[in-house]
Design brief:
Number of strands: 0
Order of helices and strands: HHHHHHHH
Largest sheet: none
Helix content: 40-55%
Shape: elongated
Distance between the termini: 57 Å
Strand content: under 5%
Number of helices: 8
Length: 137
Amino acid sequence: MKLPGCDLIPRVSNYCLREWQEIWSNCVNNKLYAIYQTVGTVVHNKGLSRHESVIMNRLRIGHTRLTHSYLLSGDDQPTYSTCGHLLTVRHVLLDCVDLQDVRQRHYSVTCLRDLFETIDNRVVIDFIKDIRFYSLL
C-alpha cells in the first residue's frame, strides 16, 4: 500500500512529542519544570515587544542579569538593599515584604506557576517597571 509522506508527519510529530514529554517529566528538579510541566504548551503573548518577551522568559526561568551576574563577576550573591534577603526572582515577584504594597496593586498570587499562568504578562511587566527593575533585568 502506498502512503503519501504527508500522512506520516502528524504521527511522527505526536511520537516525538510523547518522547519529549517522557524525558521532560523526568526533569522534576528543573526550574522551568516547576512552571511548565507539559511540553509544547507555552503560549507567547503577541502584545509584548521582543525585549519584554525576553524579560518574561528570564523571569520564568529565574535567571536575570540582576540576580545572576554575580556568577560571572565572582562577587557574592546580591541581597535586596531594603530588606536584606538574597536577591532572587521569586523574592522580588512574590516574597519581598517591602514590595508587598506595589505587588498588591498589580496582582496577588502565592506561587510562580499561578503568576505566569493566570496573570497577564503585561501586568508583570508593569510591576517590574513600577519597582524600577525593568532596566536591570
